[in-house]
Amino acid sequence: MKWTYLCKWILAILVVVGLSYLHLQANFIPKEILLFVGMFLIVAMLKFPKRMKNRRLTWK
């Protein structure tokens, strides 16, 4: 397993823990949508950079 992939998973877990903490402390995000917000953020962090990796920014 690559270190960058492992770091992304650790970051994703920290995001879910942070969202749970916000929910418990200030009821920031309703618990009904907390799971979906967490899953969306995890998928976005793990998939989006892979698609952008193949694209090159060129200045014209």
Q: What is the strand and helix layout of this fold?
A:
Elements: H1 3-26, H2 31-53
Helix pairs in contact: 1-2
Structure commentary:
- By secondary structure, the protein is mainly α.
- The chain has one domain (3-53).
- 78% of the residues lie in helices and 0% in strands.
- Helix 1 (3-26) packs antiparallel against helix 2 (31-53).
- The longest helix is centred in the first third of the chain and has 24 residues, at 3-26.
- The mean pLDDT is 72.
Write down the overall mean pLDDT. Answer: 72
Strand content: under 5%
Structural class: mainly alpha
Count of discrete alpha- or pi-helical segments spanning 4 or more residues: 2
Work out the number of β strands: 0
Taking all Cα atoms into account, the compactness measure Rg is 15 Å
Helix content: over 70%
Poorly predicted runs are none
Count of domains = 1
Cα distance spanning the termini: 37 Å
Order of helix and strand elements from N to C terminus: HH
User: Tell me, what's the shape?
Assistant: elongated
Largest beta-sheet details: none
Transmembrane segments: 5-22, 28-46
Keywords: Membrane, Transmembrane, Transmembrane helix
Q: What key phrases describe this protein's structure?
A:
single chain, 60 residues, mainly alpha, 2 helices, elongated, transmembrane, transmembrane helix
Report a brief summary of the structure.
This protein is mainly α.
